[in-house]
Specification:
The chain is α/β, with parallel strands linked by helices and 605 residues long. The protein folds into three domains: 201 residues, Rossmann fold, CATH 3.40.50; 233 residues, P-loop containing nucleotide triphosphate hydrolases (Rossmann fold, 3-Layer(aba) Sandwich), CATH 3.40.50.300; 71 residues, Orthogonal Bundle (Helix Hairpins). Helix content is 40%, strand content 20%. It contains 19 helices and 20 strands. It has a six-stranded mixed beta sheet, sandwiched between helices. The longest helix has 34 residues. The protein is globular and about 90 Å long. About 6% of the residues have low confidence.
C-alpha cells in the first residue's frame, strides 16, 4: 500500500489580474519521493511551489502538510538582507534540534566560510548560501526553484550528489536536463493552469508530453469536424421532426460551448537568426595570450584558432576567468602579453548573462519596436508588434507590461529575440540558458545548429554543451586552458574528469608568480625584420583579401539565382568552380597575412 502524501495540494486556483495562472492544479508528494515540476516560463511553477511552501495563500483549493514534517524552500531570488554574515543567515533556518556543525560543513563544501557579508556576495555565492540554509536542517521535504542557476559545474555536480544521497522528499524546478534526469523519479507537468503526472523520470517526459499534445490536437480536429457535420444537417436536413431538430440544435450549441471552453494548446516559439555576410575563413587567432590580475594568473600562454562555422564552448568554475578569456578573444579586453587577431568581415552580436540591456521600466512592445510606433523592424521586415509577440509566446495583454514585471525566463526569451534579429556572423553567448524553459532551450539549440556563422558560448549546462558545441576550451589549473574536440562528455572522456572547483588549487602548492614561471616555448629565432618583398606583400594583402571577398560575394549572389542553372548549366558549373577557387585563395591570403603580421609585431615593425 502506498504511503500517504506528506504534502498535498488539491484544486489550487490562483490568478493575477485577468490571467488565470492556476486552474485546478494538484500536487501530491510522498515521503522520500523525487518529483520534477516542469512547464513553460510564466505557467505558474514558482507560484505553485510558493503555495506548497505556505508562502502564498491560494484563491481556492486546499493545502495539507503532514503534522510535524519539516519543509524548506529555495527561492529563485534568496533575500539575505538583515543578516550580519552568511553564517547568521544559514543558522536562522535551523530548528532547536538541528546541528549547526552540519551547516558549517555545507558552507565549506560550497566554497563559503560563513563570514562573508551578504551585501558583497555575487549571485552565485548568494545561491550557495541559500542552498546551505535549505539543506542544513535535513528536512522531510525540500522545494527547490531553479537551484542550478548561477552555480558553476563543480557546485552543480556536488549538489546533484548531495540530493541523490538525501532521504528528503524533493520537488524540483530546473531547466538543466542532465540534473533532472539524474534526480527525478516522477514528473508533474503544469500546463495551462492544470497538472498532469507521469510516474517516470525526466528521460521519458518529453516523448510523453508530445504524445499528449498530439492526442489533444486529434481530439480538437474530431470536434471541429463534428461541428461541421451538425451545421450541415441543421441547414439542409429534414425539418419535419421538430423535436429532433431542437435536440440536435442544443447538441450543436453544447459542442460549440465545449470548443470555446477549451484552452488552446501552447504554441511553439518561432524564431530565426538574421544572416549577415560571411566572415573570412579565419575568425579569431590567439597566440600565447597571458592575463593576470595582480599576482593571480588568469591565462598563461593560451593559443587557439577559431574558424568560420566553429561552435566553441568555454568551461570552468566560477572565478576561473571564463568571461575574461571570452572578452580577450573577441577583442573587448587586451591581454597582458600575446596577440589576438580578428578576421575580416566580422559582424558580432552578444547576449549578456545579466540582461543588462533591458530597461525594467520599458514595456514589452517598446522593447520590440525600439519605441518606434506599433511596427517591429527586427530582422529587416516590418511587422505589427502584436503578431510578432505571438511568435515568441507573449500574449497581447502583455504588450504594455513593464519588462521588470516579466519572469526571468520571459526576459531571457526577449533577449534571444533581440540578439538573433540582428545581422551577425559571430554570436557570443554568456550563460544563455539561465531561466529558459525546456521548449525555449530546444529552440536555442536548433538556432545554434542552423546558424551560418561562428558561435562562442559560456555555459554550465552539460546537456546543452553536448548538443551545441564542436569543441570546448576548459580551465585546467593556475591559469592553464586546454581545448578539447567535442562536447562536455567528450572532454570528460578525454581527460578523465569534469570541471573541478578552484578550491582544490588552494590545497596544492601555491602557484608561482609569473616572473618565476618557466618560460613559454618560443618559436625558432627569426630574423630581425621583414624584407622588402615581405613588407610589400603585407601592404598589398588587405586589398587582395578585400577584392577576393567582393568576388566571392558576387559569385554567391549569381549562384543563388534559382533560374541560373536552368538557363546556363555550363556557366553555373564554371561559377561554382570559380567560387571554390576564390574561397581557397582568400583562406591562403588570410593565413599569409597573419603569418607576416605576427613576424612584424615580433620584430617591432
Amino acid at each position: 500500500m502506498a504511503a500517504p502524501p506528506i504534502l498535498f495540494l488539491q484544486d489550487i486556483r490562483q490568478g493575477f489580474g485577468t490571467t488565470r495562472l492556476l486552474d485546478g492544479a494538484t500536487l501530491a508528494v510522498a515521503p522520500g519521493e523525487r518529483l520534477a515540476l516542469v512547464g513553460r516560463n510564466g505557467s505558474g511553477k514558482s507560484t505553485l511551489l510558493k503555495i506548497a511552501a505556505g508562502l502564498i495563500e491560494p484563491e481556492a483549493g486546499t493545502r495539507f502538510l503532514q503534522p510535524g514534517a519539516t519543509l524548506r524552500v529555495l527561492d529563485q531570488e534568496p533575500d539575505l538582507s538583515g543578516f550580519a554574515d552568511v553564517m547568521s543567515y544559514v543558522k536562522a533556518g535551523l530548528g532547536p534540534a538541528d546541528d549547526a556543525h552540519h551547516a558549517r560543513c555545507l558552507l565549506e563544501s560550497l566554497g563559503l566560510s560563513g563570514a562573508e557579508a551578504p551585501a558583497a556576495l555575487s549571485g552565485g555565492e548568494a545561491r550557495r548560501a541559500a542552498l546551505a540554509r535549505a539543506l542544513a536542517p535535513e528536512p522531510d521535504i525540500l522545494l527547490l526553484d531553479e537551484p542550478t542557476n548561477h552555480l558553476d559545474l563543480p557546485a552543480i555536480e556536488w549538489l546533484e550528489a548531495e540530493l541523490a544521497a538525501s532521504s528528503a522528499a524533493l520537488v524540483l524546478i530546473s531547466h538543466d536536463r542532465r540534473f533532472l534526469e539524474s534526480l527525478s523519479h516522477a514528473m508533474v507537468w503544469l500546463d495551462r493552469g492544470t497538472t498532469r503526472r507521469l510516474e517516470q523520470g525526466f528521460g521519458a517526459f518529453e516523448a510523453w508530453r508530445d504524445q499528449v499534445l498530439e492526442e489533444e490536437e486529434r481530439d480538437a480536429h474530431k470536434l471541429a469536424r463534428k461541428i461541421v457535420r451538425e451545421e450541415h444537417w441543421l441547414r439542409f436536413g429534414v425539418t419535419a421532426r421538430r423535436k429532433r431538430n431542437v435536440r440536435r440544435l442544443e447538441n450543436l450549441q453544447t459542442l460549440r460551448a465545449r470548443r470555446r471552453e477549451r484552452t488552446t494548446a501552447p504554441g511553439r516559439v518561432s524564431m530565426a537568426a538574421t544572416k549577415a555576410g560571411a566572415s573570412g575563413n579565419l575568425v579569431i587567432a590567439a597566440e600565447n595570450i597571458i592575463k593576470s590580475f595582480g599576482d593571480r594568473p588568469i591565462i598563461t600562454g593560451f593559443s587557439t584558432r577559431i574558424m568560420r562555422g566553429d561552435r566553441v564552448g568555454i568551461l570552468g568554475p566560477n572565478g576561473a576567468g571564463k568571461t575574461t578569456l571570452l572578452n580577450i578573444l573577441i577583442g573587448t579586453l587586451a591581454p597582458d602579453a600575446g596577440e589576438v587577431f580578428l578576421g575580416a568581415g566580422i559582424e558580432m552580436v552578444g547576449l549578456d548573462q545579466r540582461r543588462a540591456a533591458l530597461d525594467p521600466a520599458v514595456t514589452l512592445a517598446e522593447a520590440l519596436t525600439e519605441g518606434r510606433g506599433d511596427m517591429a523592424h527586427l530582422g529587416g521586415a516590418p511587422r505589427h508588434v502584436l503578431g510578432y509577440m505571438k511568435d515568441f509566446l507573449f500574449t497581447p495583454e502583455q504588450a504594455r507590461t513593464p519588462l521588470g514585471a516579466l519572469s526571468g525566463g520571459e526576459r531571457g526569451r526577449l533577449m534571444l529575440v533581440r540578439a538573433f534579429a540582428k545581422p551577425s556572423n559571430l554570436l557570443v553567448l554568456d550563460e544563455p540558458t539561465n531561466d529558459l524553459d525546456l521548449e525555449t532551450l530546444d529552440l536555442l539549440q536548433e538556432l545554434i545548429a542552423d546558424y551560418a556563422g561562428t558561435v562562442l558560448l559560456v555555459s554550465h549546462d552539460r546537456d546543452f554543451l553536448d548538443r551545441c558545441v564542436t569543441s570546448v576550451i576548459a580551465f585546467e589549473e593556475a591559469g592553464r586552458w586546454q581545448e578539447y574536440a567535442g562536447g562536455y562528455s567528450d572532454m570528460v572522456a578525454q581527460r578523465g574528469h569534469g570541471v573541478r572547483a578552484r578550491a582544490a588549487e588552494k590545497k596544492a602548492a601555491p602557484a608561482p608568480k609569473r616572473e618565476a614561471a618557466p618560460p613559454l616555448a618560443k618559436p625558432a629565432p627569426r630574423k630581425k625584420g621583414l624584407g622588402a618583398v615581405e613588407r610589400h606583400e603585407l601592404k598589398t594583402l588587405p586589398a587582395k583579401m578585400e577584392k577576393l571577398g567582393a568576388e566571392i560575394a558576387a559569385l554567391e549572389k549569381r549562384i543563388a539565382d534559382p533560374a541560373f542553372y536552368a538557363r546556363d548549366a555550363a556557366g553555373f558549373a564554371k561559377a561554382t568552380g570559380a567560387l571554390g577557387a576564390a574561397q581557397a585563395a582568400l583562406q591562403q591570403a588570410e593565413s599569409r597575412w597573419l603569418e607576416l603580421e605576427i613576424l612584424r609585431e615580433e620584430s617591432g615593425g
